[in-house]
UniProtKB/TrEMBL annotation:
Domain of life of the organism encoding this protein: Bacteria
Keyword DNA-binding: no
InterPro entries for this protein: Bact_Sigma-Reg, GAF, GAF-like_dom_sf, HATPase_C_sf, HATPase_dom, PAS, PAS-like_dom_sf, PAS_fold_3
Domain PAS: 181-240
This protein's name: SpoIIE family protein phosphatase
UniProt entry keywords in alphabetical sequence: Hydrolase
Region (Disordered): 825-844
Length: 844
């Protein structure tokens, strides 16, 4: 906004000069007025200024001013904080100060110059997040000062200015301030010529009406076409004023948005007379109903409340609407809303929210959430809930201690009926004596009925969303495992429609101490049914993977399972098995997007993985594997199509954007990289899942040795000799006795209790020797429940457990593997790895 506004826009109740003012009825024409100045002219402002603290000095410094219309006022450049100026007073007290011309004349400093007998002034503190940022000063020329609606609008204007100052904290104040702050309020303005039907509407007004500037032809009829038919008559009476219909007009009306939603708007306008005393121009502003005052009559209030509650989907939304509908219009000091759940009242909103504003008995029980209480402890509310009717208690009524102080000047108790029962209660309290007028009783009764129904709907919605959230969380991993040679993170966002649950899933499966499987998939649809199938598929893939099957077998088994479910849904899937020691990766793709990789040098590519059909289509579908070698520092990214494809985003472009974001992100912070890939997804049409793994390589690579145990009478002896030779070559003779005992017991058990091949594998990693004996039986070894002198078996596993630091078994393809780990004294410990747990600890 310029230092001196050049537009000669009219100002509500401004004193015009000469014959022009008389002819125009106090408001000159504004053919050249800037769009962002029209709203302030209707707020009665001839001049606006921003004062900010001047560094470490005890002064307020003038940062920006704006003048327009017939204003020639000026304000001081600096004001002492300890002085008596209106700006300093508002800054010190954090309260707005409104001065009529008579009150302004009593202030010796800080007023506009040259002085004028009809100049009024408002000083509004600029505060945000507990910080005092400055003061907004507005000068008007109305003999009665600023009206209530003008004050409310200017308070919102001050909040917008404070927001801009807060964003520039630590730097010099941004310039300009006043113009951008005004435009952020989204107040539309227009100038209409009734004789021609042509209207000059700014972009903010077109946006409120849901019209794009390219589609607007400059005709008033085009704007009227967006209003609801029942509001058309009132709008026509304003936009086509009758002769002698001059002065200010206000009304509320409804429009339909581009997607069919209804919104309430407030219109404030003034009709200007021409030289022949006929309407020459209509000047007006339009804004959402939360900006300007709603109509004073009960019908307007109920209409607004009905529309606002129709848009309120959650209990908290309903609570906010109730506070807006009751506290300010009724001049109340407190509003409390509570749901009735069983025999307890659960408070959902308190306004004001500070504990000190509510009874001492409530503050004694105050925790991190608002209090709740049994109905039996509140006889006044219990009586109202039982009768189900409105109770109005005048000033001086003695209440029980749990209600003392809520309404010393009067208390209204509104039971909220909903479908034959009471859904909750609303309390409205006044500090000063309040007279309950008959029309106020009718308004409160109608409000209670509307709020009760909305509260019940919102409670059902909240319960539905809570159930959906719990379902989604229970079907996805609570946390990802820690990996010895890499780091994995994941993100999931549900679709923002319906139940907000869907079929996208991901998982990271630690197969062994050096192998991990990653899987991401998408079940068709985003509903409870899709989420249920997703949970079953994730569980099935994990079960097949931990059994030790190769990737193509895992995906093939999952496909057969989904086909056998006979559901109408199908699923896509990308499965990867990574050797954390070597970096070798096997990929299988079933109708899913190809994986992406970010190489250590920052370049990205889409891995060409041979694909198969989606899961659940064909029972005998084949799923070929693709081998890729990853080097340390590589980031592997698996995503679902909700991230890269939408109505206005082709798949190829989405993949390109994702690769660009992947290349630009810092791989050291994998969580932030995942957030940057998500970006600003806006109103999502589909679920979004992202799974990232940064392959770092093993810090300490294990040494391995293996032996196939032949079923010969001296098989155990050969296994022990192999073990002894290996331990000598590893210089691990210190644990030779313990390791040989474990090998003897595990090999003997495999030969005696199973059929088929047996294999012995030894591994040295850091300070641990790991012994693994694999056989073809899927049954895990069982320790004896009771061991006495007559027992003939079962002692071997007890010995193994006693000699081992950790011990257990895990399924592998075609059988199981029994393993034991023994610590080498005096060796450096191996890096922490996630793998099979012990029998005492269980598997992760």
């Amino acid at each position: 906004m310029p230092e001196d506004g050049g537009a000669r826009a009219g100002v509500s109740q401004l004193r015009a000069s000469g014959a022009d003012a008389a002819d125009a009825g106090g408001l000159p024409a504004v053919p050249e007025a800037a769009a962002d100045e029209r709203a302030l002219t209707f707020a009665g402002v001839a001049m606006a200024a921003v004062y900010v603290p001047a560094g470490d000095t005890d002064e307020l410094r003038l940062a920006e001013t704006a003048r327009w219309a017939v204003s020639d006022y000026r304000l001081p450049e600096c004001l002492p904080l300890s002085g008596g100026s209106p700006a300093a007073h508002a800054f010190r007290t954090d309260r707005p100060l409104w001065l009529t011309p008579a009150e302004l004349a009593a202030h010796s400093e800080g007023g506009p110059t040259p002085p004028h007998t009809e100049a009024s002034l408002g000083a509004l503190p600029l505060e945000a997040d507990g910080s005092r940022l400055g003061c907004l000063v507005v000068v008007g020329a109305g003999a009665d000062g600023f009206e209530d609606e003008q004050r409310r609008f200017l308070e919102r204007y001050a909040d917008a200015v404070a927001g801009l100052l807060l964003a520039a904290a630590g730097r010099s104040p941004p310039s300009p301030l006043l113009g951008p702050a005004l435009r952020s309020l989204r107040v539309g303005s227009f100038v209409l010529v009734p004789d021609t039907g042509l209207i000059d509407a700014d972009d903010a007004l077109l946006e409120l009406l849901g019209i794009t500037p390219a589609d607007f032809d400059g005709k008033a009829d085009t704007l009227l076409a967006h209003a609801l038919p029942e509001d058309m008559h009132a709008l026509v009476s304003v936009l086509e004023p009758a002769p002698q219909a001059f002065g200010r007009r206000e009304l509320e009306f409804r429009v339909r948005g581009p997607t069919g939603e209804m919104r309430w708007l407030s219109l404030s306008c003034r009709v200007l007379a021409g030289t022949d005393d006929r309407p020459e121009q209509v000047l007006g502003v339009v804004t959402a109903t939360s900006v300007l005052r709603r109509g004073p009559d009960d019908v307007s209030r109920i209409q607004w409340l009905t529309a606002a509650l129709d848009d309120a989907t959650t209990v908290r939304d309903v609570s906010r609407v109730v506070v807006t509908a009751l506290r300010e219009p009724l001049g109340a000091d407190r509003v409390a809303l509570a749901e009735l759940q069983g025999d307890r009242l659960m408070v959902t909103v308190l306004d004001p929210p500070q504990p000190a504003a509510w009874p001492q008995a409530w503050r004694a029980e105050w925790r991190t959430e608002w209090p709740d209480a049994p109905v039996s402890a509140l006889p006044t509310l219990q009586l109202a809930l039982r009768d189900g009717r409105l109770d109005l208690w005048p000033a001086g009524t003695a209440f029980e201690p749990n209600l003392a102080g809520i309404g010393d000047g009067g208390l209204a108790v509104l039971p909220l009926p909903a479908k034959g029962r009471v859904a909750g209660v609303c309390m409205v309290g006044w500090d000063q004596p309040h007279e309950f007028a008959p029309d106020e009783r009718s308004l409160l009764t109608a409000t209670a009925a509307l709020v009760g129904q909305a509260l019940k709907r919102a409670h059902e919605h909240d319960a539905e969303q809570e159930l959906a959230t719990m379902l989604q969380r229970s079907l996805l991993p609570r946390r990802l495992p820690e990996l010895p040679g890499g780091t994995a993170v994941a993100r999931y966002l549900p679709a923002r429609r319906g139940l907000q649950v869907g079929g996208d899933w991901y998982d990271v499966i630690a197969l062994s101490e050096d192998r991990v499987a990653l899987v991401i998939g998408d079940v068709q649809g985003h509903s409870a049914g899709a989420a249920t199938i997703m949970g079953q598929m994730r569980t099935a893939v994990r079960a097949y993977a931990v059994e030790g099957h190769p990737p193509d077998v895992v995906v093939s088994h999952a496909n057969r399972l989904l086909v056998g479910m006979e559901t109408d849904l199908f699923a896509t899937c990308c499965y990867a098995e990574l050797d954390l020691e070597q970096g070798n990766t096997l990929f299988v793709r079933a109708g899913h997007l190809a994986p992406l990789v970010r190489h250590p040098d920052g370049s990205t590519e889409e891995i060409e993985v041979e694909g198969g059909l989606p899961l659940g289509i064909l029972d005998e579908a084949e799923f070929p594997m693709t081998a890729v070698e990853l080097s340390p520092g590589t980031v592997l990214a698996l995503v679902t199509d909700g991230l890269v494809e939408a109505a206005g985003l082709p798949l190829d472009e989405g993949m390109r954007q994702t690769r660009t974001a992947l290349a630009a992100a810092d791989p050291e912070d994998l969580g932030r990289m995942a957030d940057q890939l998500l970006g600003d997804v806006g109103r999502r049409e589909d679920d979004v899942a992202v799974l990232l793994l940064r392959y770092d390589g093993m810090g300490t690579r294990p040494i391995r040795a293996g032996w196939v145990v032949w079923r010969l009478p001296d098989a155990v002896m050969h296994a022990r000799r192999f073990t002894a030779r290996t331990l000598r070559s590893w210089r691990a003779e210190d644990v030779a006795d313990a390791v040989l005992l474990v090998v003897s017991e595990l090999v003997t058990n495999a030969l005696v209790h199973t059929q088929g091949p047996v294999r012995l594998d030894l591994m040295l990693r850091g300070d641990r020797v790991r012994v693994c004996v694999a056989d073809s039986s899927p049954r895990a070894p069982a320790k004896p429940v009771i061991v006495d002198w007559e027992s003939t078996g079962g002692r071997g596993l007890l010995l193994v457990e006693a000699m081992s630091e950790s011990f257990g078994s895990m399924p592998v393809a075609g059988g199981k593997q029994v393993w034991s780990e023994i610590v080498l004294p005096g060796r450096a410990p191996a890096p922490t790895a996630s793998g099979p747990g012990t029998e005492r600890e269980g598997r992760r």
